[in-house]
Specification:
With 371 residues, this protein is α+β, with helices and mostly antiparallel strands. Helix content is 19%, strand content 33%.
Amino acid sequence: MADATPSPLTSPLHDRHEALGAKFSEFGGWLMPLEYPTGVVKEHAAVRGGVGIFDVSHLGKLVVRGPGAVEFLNATLTNDLHRIGPGRAQYSLVVDDATGGIVDDVFTYYRDDDHVLVVPNAANNDEVRRRLVEAAPEGIEVLDHHRDYVVLAVQGTRSDEVVAGVGLPVGHDYLTFVEAPFEGAEVVVCRTGYTGERGYELIAPSTVAPALWDALMRAGEPYGLVPAGLGARDTLRTEMGYPLHGQDISPDITPNEARLGWAVGWKKPAFWGRDKLLAEREEGPRRKLVGLVSTGRAIPRPHMSVRLLRDVPLGEVTSGTFSPTMKKGIALALVSTVVDDGAEVMVDVRGRPEVFQITKPPFVQPSVRES
């Protein structure tokens, strides 16, 4: 019998990554660069101290358009699109109406009242689209452009010079975007990113992806631009305390538990999961997502148990890694609310109890908002 498992999708830039010697890993149904011969630590350091470039084309791309598209999305997603306006981006959540669990976290790009780009995580693109399609009133379209566009993230202190070097506009405010021409195509230039550093995410038609990648690589040469993979993206986002869906947030975890209440428009009259989340907020969640910092040399990993010093179970690590910036083990963990920030806890690291301190992320001071 033939194997029915579908082959992973690849980026339009797959050959470029192969030529650079990338090591690949399957992620969300896509085969994407995990790291290059430079290695995760050097790629991480390049972003923190200079500039790196990521191909994150596995991210979903859903266009919601039609009369009242913004009003429709505002009645479904958690955050309040009325807080922003055209040309601005916003972090939001797709929550299950019955359970309050996080189906996905997304970015919305508000083009105009009748046109919004929604960017889900790769593995959740189809599920987010399904839910939006089922809820959409007549006249609202939800179009899937997952494979029609690439997303390139240029991140780091020298990102302005690199993006400007290919003729694209820079210098606009954090969480804003502009559209500009490149090789006859329109590129969306977003002041967003997943690293905590100043940077841009470029959303471009797949047809111009190779030309855009090559141009950015050339423009970045004077600034030491380094291609970076999903390994460095993970260490960078963990240092910021940014959650990863499927680990730190999931359908089994609510926004209240994940401390993402800031991404909820609590005064809105309607959004998916509103009643459930308001009731939980009033009562108080029983779990919370916290940061952990090793007091020694231990490196935590997902699913390691977290306990109080007197051996009382608290929860488990959801994301854990070695911080190249801090030179320490750090983690995100979902634990009981009975423990306070600043407390010392024990993490079972391969059978050895290791001491960690609870803290509130970010672990490293971000510069993403710097002008």
